[in-house]
Amino acid sequence: MKKENFDVVIIGAGPSGAVASAMLARAGRSVLVLEKQYFPRFSIGESLLPQCMEFLAQAGLEQTVHDHAAANGFQFKNGAAFHKQGQYTEFDFTEKFSKGPGTTYQVKRASFDKILADGAAQAGAEIRFGHEVKTVAVDCLCPLLEVLDEQGNLYQVEARFLLDASGFARVLPRMLGLEKPSHLPTRQSYFTHVKDNIACETDSSSDAVKFDRDKILITVNPNNSDIWYWLIPFSDGTSSIGVVGKPEQFSGYESPEVILKHFVHAAPNLRDILKNAEWPNEVNTLGGYSADVTHLAAKNYALLGNAGEFLDPVFSSGVTIALCSAVLIAPQVLRYLDGEAVDFEESFAVPLKKGVDCFKTFVNSWYESGFQDVIFYQEQETTVKSMISSILAGYAWDQKNPYVAQSERRFKTLVELCQ
Ligand SMILES: Cc1cc2nc3c(=O)[nH]c(=O)nc-3n(C[C@H](O)[C@H](O)[C@H](O)COP(=O)(O)OP(=O)(O)OC[C@H]3O[C@@H](n4cnc5c(N)ncnc54)[C@H](O)[C@@H]3O)c2cc1C
User: Fold this and answer.
1) Three-state SS letters, the chain
2) How many CB atoms lie within 10 A of CB 280?
3) Distance between CA 69 and CA 414 in Å, rounded?
4) Under CATH, what is the fold of the domain 3-74+105-181+290-358?
5) Where exactly does CATH 3.50.50.60 map onto the chain?
6) Among 109, 184, 319, which residue has the most ligand 1 atoms within 8 Å of its CB, making it the best to mutate?
7) Residue 35: CB within 6 Å of ligand 1?
8) Where in the chain is the domain with CATH 3.30.9.100?
9) Phi, psi of 136 (to 5 degrees)
10) CB 325 less than 6 A from any atom of ligand 1
11) Rounded distance, CA 291 to CA 274, Å?
């Protein structure tokens, strides 16, 4: 069987794979990215956080995203809005505690992922679309992969270091038995893209129908605070609409389309905002996505983005965490390739987990409904609000923010105050 050698092989050309490969290729290393699909392709995860822009800048990929947005390709985003039982509140990310960009974009991932992958290829990474990783062996010094190409031929690739950026496919966790159950219960989502036909940009007439195209709108189901919706407007007059709940909350309906329309109808603000929407697309469903692993890295491999831990979509943290994992691992892999002894646990997994754990505090509290009380608390102190805004903007690694540094303790106190 044909065998090739690279410094680094990356499984998957999604955001984490593209950013890691761009950084490593720019540093002069030979990088092969194996991607089983062809881009552009649909992916869920459309609302970015401003912290993403810093990570993209570190990989030299920020400008290409701005350029696409300037050509009306991506929707400008400056915050998050929340709605619950007639109450509406907004977090403006430009009024945040942490330094760094306060705005970002809402993106169709088909275009976004293609742009990043093209940028990585321009930086020197070789990306092979339609090539699927079938087996992996990591117990030797150099990981060895078997890959199925577009013509159905198997070939081998040897890497000095292997990065798994395979997203929900979780190639290494599955093949190496690294999977660990998530502490979060199983949840199910139903989603589609609609032609939204939303009449006005911002309707401030009443809390019930407030809507701002520059913000993701998170709506809590009026009858069950465990069920929530996203509405992510795009720049072309379409929006992503989705509902999330426990699987049993969606049982007894005849199809995903009926489920999504039924639940949207049950939320008066969404019913009103989307009253003229057209639903030309299929409704998709995805569930059981929360996942964890026993470890994020070993001597010759590391897990990026969703291939490692995935929490929950509620605060749009997925792409931010994926990009953070990529910018944290790249310099460590370069040190390793230069022959240095690298402790990947200390230099990669521990710093990455600090931010993930901060998001985890928020996610847990959202479903216990404490964070919902914080969000809708009317007399929020400005500094506290700016610190919460920072985390919602993705700055979950900024240890200067007390709600990051001591997230559980600080947050518990805040919830008690707001309740
Ligand atoms: C319902 C829902 C809503 C979400 N909403 C948001 C949101 O609004 N904002 C946000 O930031 N995040 C969101 N997320 C999370 C987001 O989708 C992910 O965190 C993000 O896409 C992870 O990027 P990644 O680079 O790790 O993997 P991916 O983007 O999934 O890329 C992985 C790539 O690996 C390839 N691959 C898989 N197996 C193989 C193989 N064997 N060989 C070769 N290639 C392979 C796949 O084809 C794919 O292209 C959401 C998630 C869910 C479930």
Assistant:
1) CCEEEEEEEEECCCHHHHHHHHHHHHCCCCEEEEECCCCCCCCCCCECCCHHHHHHHHCCCHHHHHHHHHCCCCEEECEEEEEECCEEEEEEHHHCCCCCCCCEEECCHHHHHHHHHHHHHHCCCEEEECCEEEEEECCCCCCEEEEECCCCCEEEEEEEEEEECCHHHCHHHHHHCCEECCCCCCCEEEEEEEECCCCCCECCCCHHHCCECCEEEEEECCCCCCCEEEEEECCCCEEEEEEEECHHHHCCCCCHHHHHHHHHHCCHHHHHHCCCCECCCCCEEEECCCEEECCCECCCEEECHHHCCECCHHHCCHHHHHHHHHHHHHHHHHHHHCCCCCCHHHHHHHHHHHHHHHHHHHHHHHHCCHHHHHHCCCCCCHHHHHHHHHHHCCCCCCCCCHHHHCHHHHHHHHHHHHC
2) 10
3) 37
4) FAD/NAD(P)-binding domain (3.50.50)
5) 3-74+105-181+290-358
6) 319
7) yes
8) 188-287
9) -140, 135
10) no
11) 33
CATH code reported for the domain at 188-287: 3.30.9.100
Per-residue pLDDT of the chain (419 residues; tens, 9 = 90+): 899 999 999 999 999 999 999 999 999 999 999 999 999 999 999 999 999 999 999 999 999 999 999 998 999 999 999 999 999 999 999 999 999 999 999 999 999 999 999 999 999 999 999 999 999 999 999 999 999 999 999 999 999 999 999 999 999 999 999 999 998 999 999 999 999 999 865 545 566 568 999 999 999 999 999 999 999 999 999 999 999 999 999 999 999 999 999 999 999 999 999 999 999 999 999 999 999 999 999 999 999 999 999 999 999 999 999 999 999 999 999 999 999 999 999 999 999 999 999 999 999 999 998 999 999 998 889 999 999 999 999 999 999 999 999 999 998 999 998 88
Ligand 1, atom nearest to 321 Cα: 19
Q: CA–CA separation, 345 vs 294, rounded Å?
A: 12
Distance 306 CA to ligand 1 centre (A): 6
Tokens of 351: 């710093």
Whether the pTM exceeds 0.90: the reply is yes
Q: Quote the ligand 1 centre to 44 CA distance (angstroms).
A: 7
Task: Report whether residue 43 contacts ligand 1, using a CB cutoff of 6 Å.
Answer: yes
| Tokens matching residue 69 | 């947005």
